[in-house]
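Box 4.2: Ligand-aware structure prediction
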Amino acid sequence: MANETFLKACRREQTDYTPVWLMRQAGRYMKEYMAIREKHSFIEMCKKPEIACEVTLQPVKAFELDAAIIFADILLPLEGMGINFEFAKNEGPVIRNPVRNRKDIDAVKVINPEADVPYLLEAIKLVKKELNGKVPLIGFSGAPFTLASYIIEGEGSRNYINTKKLMYTDPEGWKILMDKIADVVIVYLQAQAKAGAQVLQLFDSWVGCLGPDDFREYALPYTKRVIDTIKKTTDVPVINFGTNTGTYLNLVKQGGGDVIGVDWKVRLDEAWKTIGYEHSIQGNLDPVVLFSNPATIRKRVKEIIDMAEGRPGHIFNLGHGIILGTPVDNVRAVIDSVHEFSKR
Ligand code: CP3
């Protein structure tokens, strides 16, 4: 492997500089992406390994990134679970048969990745071949709570009323559903590791809608079982990322993970102190800072690098994904300034 900086930081080993990759680094803010996207739907791009491979590599070619992330979506396992979604025009994906009651829960299937997402595993193999050891490849999955809330709500949600209603009124049904989803996430991640993913990230983008006690009871046990099982059955580092969890990072870390990913609503130094220095930390620039200018970006990047105090195990990232409309030059400014300010 030509560039092991990211893998070393996952293991909290000393590195020559702080590695950086950006959530949603492949996407519509890049003209190379749009050139392909104009001819194919998003889901087509995911399902054609040659296209998924090409798009995965676009940001790695354009910027000095220290990792690639496979081009995919957290909703890809749904089809094999018996849940149908479609991308409505100019909206996000919409589920026509959301899971709302015991009958729906009983019908949810655990996937067989080789049969249900063969295109994803093929794309991972292709990317590995093309990368040829340039940088490591990250595989990922939605975390159980975030997946559950999507399949229960059927679309994005402000208050997660259906999700919490099920949780509070039928805790036993919730457990059955979450156990199935955790089983899906486990086999989905294991298959990605087997296909060649060198690091695995769980995206718990929506779990922060839960207060600490609900997080402990309704989300944590399932994330913990996923991560414990992945750690027992593979040798890849795991990144446990969530948003809006800054007030209970002490609980988040109980879920496990070599690396804990944090958003920008916590200071990186305070977050790391709470999480403990036996974990690596990933984060945490506000993605909206990338709508400012290179001078502001450099200042904000330096503040985060300084908060890590040169301690091994910091992976620079945004606090959540790159937002549509982000200027490409500002993405470059983040990546290059991380390397410049952290050089040891
Ligand atoms: O770093 C990465 O590249 C991770 C890949 C990733 C995508 N979506 C790719 C994607 C991840 C982790 C997600 C997360 C996701 N996807 C969530 C969790 C919430 C979050 O934002 O973290 C949810 C609910 C989805 C489902 C989904 N997929 C939505 C709501 C949308 C439309 C909104 C949007 O931002 O475009 C998608 C499409 C999607 N997923 C795109 C990408 C790159 C855009 C594709 C396109 O239209 O060209």
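In the box above, the bound molecule is coproporphyrinogen III. The first helix runs from residue 5 to 10.
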